[in-house]
Amino acid sequence: MDLIKQKWTSKDINEFNKYIESIKQEEKIDFTKRIVNTNMEVLGIPIPKLREISKQIAKGNYMSFLNNKNNKYYENTIVSVCLINLIKDFEIKKHYLNELYIDNWSTCDTLTFKVKGQEEKFWKLSQEYLKSKEAFTRRVGVRILFSYKNNTEYVDKIFETIDKFYNEEEYYVNMAIAWLVCELMIYNRDKTLKYLEHHKLNKFTVNKAISKCRDSYRVSKEDKELLLKYKNIEKQ
Asked: Is pTM beyond 0.85 here?
């Protein structure tokens, strides 16, 4: 199929869906669906292949592709995310983010954010998403915060933000915060250790954060031992 188009019609989208159906990998469908934990139909197409497809679409009018809101398969959402990642204009990117359907961690975590020069705009967007009733929208909000992990002007603000999630019950949101704390430990060791002295994270999240740190090759052996003192501490 010719993936380079100046205008994507509904007919083109139907043809596109038939195309990706033709390259589905039956042997990977059940595994992918189980790992990703999505309610969408799955074709088992590897993400590297979906990236290749996205690169071809991006040579044409990829926003026309996005305007069709094609969510028939989980793979469609990955292609859409790869295209959204290319958008530099904040308002346009925000528009397509708001239109994006996400019901799993993989679609969420494929998103990337280049905040340089637009730090305050993306920060406000993260705060907006973090207030959402939708768990994966909140996870996107956390993912945006990753872009500030080595920005000294925002690190303390990140700690203040995640402290508000003591009562968070959604597994995928808590896991994203735990992952974020691990990254902060790697990029801002001293500040993160100081934060852990008085954090307000729930028990699950802080324990997962410490586990991730201890599993990371980017955290020293000495720090891995030091972090054990914070494990199983549940703030009241």
From this structure: yes
